[in-house]
Amino acid sequence: MSTPANCRFSETHEWFRQETDGTVTMGITQHAADELTDITFVEMKADGTKITAGGTVGEVESVKTSSEIYIPCAGTVVASNEAAHQDPSLLNSDPYGKGWLVRLSDCDLSKATDLMDAKTYDAKNGH
Amino acid sequence: MSTANLARTPFHHWSAERGARFVDFTGWEMPMSYGSIIDEHHACRSGAAFFDVSHMGRLRITGRHARKFLDRVCTRQIMGMERGTVRYSLVCNERGGVRDDVLVYCYEEDDYMMVVNASNRLKILDWFGSIKARENMTFQMEDVTADTAMAAIQGPKVIDIVGTFSREIPTLKRYRFAEKSLMIAKLTVSRTGYTGEDGVEIVMGSTVAKFVLPMLLREKEGVTAMVRPAGLGARDSLRTEASMPLYGHEITEEIDPLSAGLGFAVKLDKGDVDTREGRFIGQEALLKIKADGVQNSLVGFEVEGRRSARQGMLLYQGGKHVGHVSSGCLSPTLDKVIAMGYVPAAMSAVGTEFELDLGKVKTTAKVVKMPFYNPVRTKTA
């Protein structure tokens, strides 16, 4: 699956997409999903939770390990993906689509200076 | 992953062509999976799966004192093994702790193969060498790991598939093997495995492995592969469901086989009736453990919730730390979290509940009967 050009990417393998309604959708990258192996558990913070910059929005577990999911700038959870909670394998099969994790409001991506574009992210991760 | 200096098996290229994701497993570059670990797990439970297990150590032990030596290091009785049989055994230290768990193949009265864990191969070779010198025994021990390859083909449909090129293999009972020729290749085919399914394990020369494998898997017979390649990830969840011990998890130098529930593989009266059997290293210590009663026992757990229990997680009762998890996973077959672990023997009854610390949260782990998954019994003639 190609890395979507309309997203920005963190060092810790999360993707972020600015939506037209002002919210930000995020998830984990295909590279992260591949490295984690089959994802078996997803638990995101409840709607309304305010997260500080560098804080965690939740946790995913795979056959191999468990992993925190971070955001690089402050935000408030407005929705999390119930389908991914029910079927964590969506993170492996469609990480940029049906396998999204949370939607954030009050999240200003311009404040996160370390985010990469798709090309840079791919080059860095050997794709 | 840095793959410099890792050993590669004769099937490495075959696996790479099929998209294997490799990991460093005790110095070997081995497939973790070829795609989804869970799909590979289900393929083994419902059809057939191929595992490259060439990293396992294979030692050929032959000569005058071969049998005597094996009876000295194995907890199981080797004397009297029939040709063409395989025995699971522990190799123990003087304290009764497990140095390794192994399979012993009897080719002749003075000709055996021992399959050891990859992680223990060098330790075992070293130790066997010192015993041979110390006890003045005459036999040859050859490490044939690099000269051979080993394939595990496991699943309920394996015998039908393998049966098309050998009429004998489907008649083999569990823990028996046959030597077969396939073209110019000589194969040792045993009805053994580490998945809880029926199936075979096949040892072959490393130089012929490349052409033997596609024949074994009947790759040319259609677009749909009959046997799915599977990696170490699925191998681990399959053996956990079948409650089979993994060295470094359920058994270590500090854990004795009686605590691990492996008493069936320990002949505590070895040498009592027939002195030719000799006594095995660790026997005295194990007799004492048996007489005193084990302190801790390996038990199986069902764990509440969907978070996986993992090795090293602690178990509590009444706020007091009493045990730990040795292995755990979200069981693909049972669709719930299962685990194995050690608790005081007095608390090991089925139904006993423990608090399990998963790190962030706590949950309940309840003792259940093992194995978690009941393998389909082999149907043989």
Structure commentary:
The complex is a heterodimer of chains A (127) and B (381). By secondary structure, chain A is of the alpha+beta class. Chain A has one domain: OB fold (Dihydrolipoamide Acetyltransferase, E2P). Chain A is built from four helices and nine strands; from the N terminus they run βββαβββββααβα. Chain A has helices spanning 30-36, 82-86, 90-93, 118-124; strands spanning 8-9, 14-18, 24-28, 39-44, 50-51, 56-62, 66-70, 75-80, 102-105. Chain A has a six-stranded antiparallel β-sheet with strand order 1-2-3-9-8-5. The relative contact order of chain A is 0.26. Chain B is globular, with a radius of gyration of 21 Å. In chain B, the strands form four sheets. Chain B has a six-stranded mixed β-sheet. Chain B has a six-stranded antiparallel barrel with strand order 14-17-16-15-18-19. A five-stranded antiparallel β-sheet of chain B has the order 5-6-7-4-8, covered by helices on one side. In chain B, helix 2 packs across helix 7. Chain B folds into three domains: 12-54 and 146-241, 2-Layer Sandwich (Gyrase A, domain 2); 58-144 and 256-290, Aminomethyltransferase beta-barrel domains (Alpha-Beta Plaits, 2-Layer Sandwich), CATH 3.30.70.1400; 295-368, Beta Barrel (Elongation Factor Tu (Ef-tu), domain 3), CATH 2.40.30. The longest helix of chain B is centred in the middle third of the chain and has 14 residues, at 121-134. Chain B is built from eight helices and 19 strands. With 381 residues, chain B is of the alpha+beta class. The mean pLDDT of chain B is 94.
